[in-house]
Specification:
It is built from 9 helices and no strands. The chain folds into 2 domains: 7-63, Arc Repressor Mutant, subunit A; 80-185, no CATH class. With 188 residues, it is mostly helical. The longest helix has 25 residues, at 7-31.
């Protein structure tokens, strides 16, 4: 696989990833084809294989994401739910319809590989973000409940576009969700 960092190579790689997200998002893993992805990226199908090796590796790369959750050490406990919700939603606000976040959420419902990826990402990144505030054990045990609430909000807002959740500002939504998040973060 090509690992060149030249600007042209990077643009080609990004074009392939964009096209892959479009096709995997609209057709699913099984029905998306390398040929269609290459056509959308305006390249030869062999270039997709050159950059990613296989359809499976391309799917993995299309699902690769960082939630960009910060270390919340030092956040006062009463502000932790609001901080976590707003930080979790921030990258979703900038994610396009073909972005990794929406693709991963859609794909996790029907593809075990994507579901496992989502579970791992959420557990690792939420636990890491919360460890400085809650301690390692409590952060790990709380991450599932926190993830369930955050994913529910993300699904309703970004995929279903459920009203009024879809039209609320992130701050207003965080204000509404923070009380239940506080319960999920509470010491059992």
């Amino acid at each position: 696989m090509e690992q060149s960092a030249s600007p042209r190579s990077q643009r080609t790689r990004e074009a392939i990833l964009y096209a892959a997200r479009v096709h995997f998002g609209s057709h699913g893993y099984q029905r998306a084809t390398i040929r269609a992805i290459a056509a959308t990226a305006a390249i030869d199908p062999s270039m997709v294989m050159r950059y990613f090796g296989s359809k499976e590796q391309l799917f993995d790369a299309a699902l690769d994401l960082d939630l960009r959750l910060p270390d919340l050490t030092g956040t006062p406990p009463e502000l932790l739910p609001h901080a976590l919700i707003t930080r979790f939603l921030a990258p979703w606000e900038n994610d396009t319809d073909e972005g990794s976040l929406r693709l991963l959420l859609r794909s996790a419902a029907t593809n075990e590989r994507a579901a496992e990826r989502l579970r791992r990402i959420l557990h690792e990144q939420l636990t890491s973000s919360l460890t400085g505030v809650l301690g390692a054990e409590r952060a790990a045990s709380s991450s599932g409940l926190v993830a369930a609430q955050l994913l529910g909000v993300a699904f309703a807002r970004y995929l279903l576009r459920l009203q009024p959740i879809a039209d609320l500002s992130v701050q207003a939504l965080a204000d509404l969700v923070a009380p239940s998040m506080r319960t999920a973060l509470a010491d059992p």
